[in-house]
Design goal:
Blueprint lengths: L3 E6 L3 H11 L3 E7 L2 H11 L3 E4 L10 H12 L4 E6 L4 H9 L4 E4 L4 H12 L4 E2 L1 H11 L3 H10 L4 H11 L4 H8 L3 H15 L4 H10 L4
Parallel strand pairs: 1-2, 1-3, 3-4, 4-5, 5-6
Helix pairs in contact: 2-3, 3-4, 4-6, 8-10, 8-11, 9-10
Amino acid sequence: MNRLRVVLVDDHSLFRAGAKAELGTDLEIVGEAATVDQAVPVILSSAPDVVLLDVHLPGGQGGGGAEVARAVLAANPAIRLLALSVSDAAADVVAVIRAGARGYVTKSISPADLADAVRRVAEGDAVFSPRLAGFVLDAFGAAAGDVAAADELDRLTAREQEVMRLIARGYAYREVATELFISIKTVETHVSAVLRKLQLSNRSELTHWAARRNLL
């Protein structure tokens, strides 16, 4: 039986080396990457059965594993992604699942269970530990308004979300620039993008939008 083809995306070289050593007899590691910018082309050129994807990755626009998932699935919806991370935070789990990952396991998982999880995801199953599955059920069982708000927020890049929250809290452009170590001109550009993507007209509407969604 042919081994499943896997791309391993993690910014720690020691972890990638260990994973390759542990999984190499069960799975074929056909590519690896350490950043968002490296991951997308490696995955698309390799066209693996499954991507093992860390949640927190450097590069790109700051979106980490969720950013990789969105870019990959936009180009090739057939690729399946399994998030693998030290984090078991609800926000991390929900973000990467919303981006299209088919499951989420933590790095405390045994090599045998990880190989099994990869096979199940390749076959179309969704794979979570019981605690993490609860996060997903809670998030996707939310009221339609909450889901719509999350979808709206997903339109913004990570940096735009940072700027949005500060502006909505009443920060001046200069204060936002100082807080985020960017220029005032860059703040203005981000605010314009936020208002356009959320179809809002001004800062007052943005503050009301954020307050209704408990984002302040």
